[in-house]
Amino acid sequence: MKAKKLTGEKAAEYIEAGMIIGLGTGSTAYYAIKKVGEMVRNGLKVKAVPTSKETAKLAAEEGIELVELAEVNSLDLTIDGADEVDPQFNLIKGGGGALLREKIVASATEKLIIVVDESKLVEHLGAFPLPVEITPFSWKYTQRMIEKFSCSSEIRKENGEIFITDNDNYILDCNFGKIKDPVKLTVELNKLPGVVENGIFAEMAEIVVVGYNDGHIEVLEK
Ligand code: 5RP
């Protein structure tokens, strides 16, 4: 909790007046959003693109001006969390189910800042099951196609029901084990019919802010 708060707040220091920023989703991005809210109430002028309905609600409650991605050409920076970060800054995201909008916003962003606590740092991606957003239409067919990549997978559920993303899709949580080539896997997965997007964010992050439980933070730059 403390580590997440520290890292979220540290990342907010990169925001400057007049910027268009992306706001991530999850319990670490939460603290960055709360900090941006405080900065806005103290006079900071920014516009923000949220990466989920949940984030849009929180940001609006914080008084942050929201814009649609379609209204802006690009974003100056985005602050988002991650489920795993490897030494090359490749990420697994989507534990919170917002990976599609998160990846679109990240790709439209000049500088992607990732905020994590130390538990998210890994040598290789893959211990955390890779979330893959798929279309509900014939999802079992898509699941079989994905499982040809030697992985097992489970359809994500919430309260016993299939989890529905903000884009009305489903999520498959896929156990690949150690992911040796994240760049290759993300390309291969996205070629499959029915796959909307996958949670590997390869070569996208510029800065990773890591919060440690003893209260210190580390800023890693590419
Ligand atoms: C949501 C995400 C989150 O950023 C990721 O799951 C990390 O969340 P948290 O900071 O709560 O651990 O990708 O889709």
TrEMBL record:
<comment type="pathway">
    <text>Carbohydrate degradation; pentose phosphate pathway; D-ribose 5-phosphate from D-ribulose 5-phosphate (non-oxidative stage): step 1/1.</text>
</comment>
<dbReference type="GO" id="GO:0005829">
    <property type="term" value="C:cytosol"/>
</dbReference>
<keyword id="KW-0413">Isomerase</keyword>
<comment type="subunit">
    <text>Homodimer.</text>
</comment>
<dbReference type="GO" id="GO:0004751">
    <property type="term" value="F:ribose-5-phosphate isomerase activity"/>
</dbReference>
<protein>
    <recommendedName>
        <fullName>Ribose-5-phosphate isomerase A</fullName>
        <ecNumber>5.3.1.6</ecNumber>
    </recommendedName>
</protein>
<feature type="binding site">
    <location>
        <begin position="80"/>
        <end position="83"/>
    </location>
    <ligand>
        <name>substrate</name>
    </ligand>
</feature>
<dbReference type="InterPro" id="IPR037171">
    <property type="entry name" value="NagB/RpiA_transferase-like"/>
</dbReference>
<dbReference type="GO" id="GO:0009052">
    <property type="term" value="P:pentose-phosphate shunt, non-oxidative branch"/>
</dbReference>
<feature type="binding site">
    <location>
        <begin position="93"/>
        <end position="96"/>
    </location>
    <ligand>
        <name>substrate</name>
    </ligand>
</feature>
<comment type="similarity">
    <text>Belongs to the ribose 5-phosphate isomerase family.</text>
</comment>
<feature type="binding site">
    <location>
        <begin position="25"/>
        <end position="28"/>
    </location>
    <ligand>
        <name>substrate</name>
    </ligand>
</feature>
<dbReference type="InterPro" id="IPR020672">
    <property type="entry name" value="Ribose5P_isomerase_typA_subgr"/>
</dbReference>
<feature type="binding site">
    <location>
        <position position="120"/>
    </location>
    <ligand>
        <name>substrate</name>
    </ligand>
</feature>
<dbReference type="InterPro" id="IPR004788">
    <property type="entry name" value="Ribose5P_isomerase_type_A"/>
</dbReference>
<comment type="function">
    <text>Catalyzes the reversible conversion of ribose-5-phosphate to ribulose 5-phosphate.</text>
</comment>
<dbReference type="Pfam" id="PF06026">
    <property type="entry name" value="Rib_5-P_isom_A"/>
</dbReference>
<dbReference type="GO" id="GO:0006014">
    <property type="term" value="P:D-ribose metabolic process"/>
</dbReference>
<feature type="active site" description="Proton acceptor">
    <location>
        <position position="102"/>
    </location>
</feature>
